[in-house]
Amino acid sequence: MLRKQLRPAIVMTLLLCVITGLAYPGLVTGIAQVLFPRQANGSLVEVGGRVVGSEIIGQPFTQAWYFHPRPSAAGAGYDATASAGTNKGPTDTKLADTLIAGRVDSLVAAGVVTKGQVPADMVTASASGLDPHISPANARLQVTRVAQARNADPAAVQQLVDARTEGRQFGFFGEPRVNVLMLNIALDSLFPRPAGAGATPPATQP
Amino acid sequence: MTTNGWLQIAFFSLCFLLVAKPLGIYLVRVFDGSVRWLAPVERLLYRAAGVDPAEDQHWKRYAAGMLLFSAASMLLTYVALRLQHVLPLNPQEFAAVPDRQAFETAASFTTNTNWQSYGGESTMSYLSQMMQLAFHNFISAAVGIALAVALVRGIARRGNEARGRLGNFWADLVRGTLYVLLPISFIAALLMVQQGVIQNFDPYLQVTTLEGGTQTLAMGPVASQEAIKQLGTNGGGFFNANAAHPFENPTPWSNFLSMFLIFAIPSALTWMLGRMVGNQRHGWAVWTAMFVLFAAGVTTAYWAEARGNPIHVARGIDVVTTDANPGGNMEGKEVRYGIANSALYAVVTTDASCGAVNSMHDSFTALGGMVPLINMQLGEVIFGGVGAGLYGMLVMVVLTVFIAGLMVGRTPEYLGKKIQAREVQMTMLYVLAAAASILVFTAISSVHPLGLAGRNNAGPHGLSEILYAFSSTTGNNGSAFAGLTGSTYWYNTQLGLATLIGRFMLIVPMLALAGFLAEKNPGTENAGSFPVSGPLFITLLVGVVIIVGALTFFPALSLGPIVEHLQMGAGRLF
Hints:
The structure holds 2 protein chains of 2 kinds.
Chain A: H1 6-35, H2 37-40, E1 44-47, E2 50-54, H3 93-109, E3 118-119, E4 133-134, H4 136-149, H5 154-164, E5 165-166, E6 177-179, H6 180-190
Antiparallel strand pairs in A: 1-2, 4-6, 5-6
Chain B: H1 3-18, H2 20-31, H3 39-49, E1 57-58, H4 59-82, H5 99-110, H6 120-123, H7 126-156, H8 159-162, E2 165-167, H9 169-195, E3 205-208, E4 214-217, H10 222-231, H11 252-276, H12 280-307, H13 310-315, E5 317-318, H14 338-351, H15 366-377, H16 388-408, E6 413-414, E7 417-418, H17 421-445, H18 449-452, H19 460-474, H20 489-517, H21 535-569
Antiparallel strand pairs in B: 1-2, 3-4, 6-7
């Protein structure tokens, strides 16, 4: 009973492996590269002819004149070769007392927000560590800092945030959100960075 | 909880309800051999393999073919992962996968589990992803569907004609792959690319970020794998963060599509059941029982996650969900999905034995995280894995009619066929093998230093991580409380074994049950027969699923998530 089915087992394994593992992804790649080349290659974003990242992959921002993304547990933060969340549970001491409480306290100390009103995404790490978005509430709280650092009118910056806020997809799916990288690129084009902030990043491209 | 959140959940439910009949009709036609638009490819495969697709196989022969095929494909994957460093399409020059991890990965993908103790973007070459992991995504799903079809044939056929025969394994395997999985995956993959899922063979791309730092973007043929990963309820991510990674699941619409793909075939299989046994109301009764359990899970999880974590509220987080603030428990969740779609996805992926995640279950609140855990422990029968969910639920149906028969004191019958000692023995073997694997392995790891060393959380949550790991692997789910460090000899070998037990120690008794039923002639149904449709049957079926699960796992759950919930309310940290 077993021996007679040995040949089908081996042949089917090899042939189906070629069909589903080689022909199928090859065909999908070919068609995707023709129909949707931008998306298939990572939705890359260029500024001044230079690729600065992917529209849909979050990247770290720490300077005062940029909007900041969510905390990240991917590698040392926004490491796109090591996507991950903290995987800390609801009763974990470090998560509650060090990570979340620490972030809340520094926001409160900087006068950004009062305790109890911190938007949930602002002090928690995302699932991928590469979340490209922040919530509209989170962005709103950063407007004053960004405007100040750029000597810009906070109302104008807020207007930009509003314009860059994506609603639910098709008006229905998901949640409203702001893409941090795209917002910051728009910011650079509308409001000059402060003097001495390095208008262009170092051109050392490996 | 928001109105929009509930509407998204309701709309999703409506979609997988509406797909049941059209896809169900198609499945019936595929497996009776009347869909033939790829007949030349089909014939070529049969001829090369030397099989006669018209041969009607006895259940033992069907089982032998399935086991040999699984063994051959698992061996191929083990060898290919060990030789990854010398094979092509490895632009990042990843080393060979270590022996323990290659064994576990091969076992895990062969069994439709896709538990991953590695990070895809830092371990697997493009060739390994496509020709091994995505290949198994197809065939393990096709095997699952074939087995469900075989069981339904066993129930439907007259014993004096079938005499224990269930159809042809090779034909079922090929037809499921060619006519169901490949075409739907192909369309879904392109829809995903359109939304931003990547599909290329480029090396990883290093960029200078806007602030002047460097970031390396992982690349690869992701969309083709993502589509079958969802459709085949496999769940193994191309990247470590799985479907939370924006390159796997970039938008709310791609997220919706993913969830729809997960539930489409399991939902349609219940319609196929009704048609093949000639009792459409029975098919809908099984669907309804599954839906009741799904609705209970999603309500609980959404409530728990939207309510948030009182400990984090005390630290200053605003948990009220509005259009501007996601609210709730956002640790380990993405802004684009928010609370509603993260909770819904967690329930869908663990109801079906998919195991893809768009949020980190390990960081859910205690009760929010208990829902996925229970879903897996109930035997992955709430729509369940493709095929596996239906045959798992039908085993529960047999148990239900048996218990109902005992209650009224007459010989239990299922669709006119008498349920006797042999059938009940196989049913109990099925139930006990799964429970024993989960509880015994968990017990060992929760007292042994090597098992305890893997925890990422202290206190009751640490036990939950271990319990989740063995529930997930035995249930062939593959999702994780991912803090657990599974990449050790201890866990690689034991979790690998749990996936094999959870698949094959359940399949063989199930196929025996199918064979025994295929030897019986249905009697004439009369007023005294127990109806297998209607509210009474649905209530009993739901009750049996819950009671079997609760009796088995309540003690373990009360030491993990339940006690953690109480501690969380009291503000206790570990």
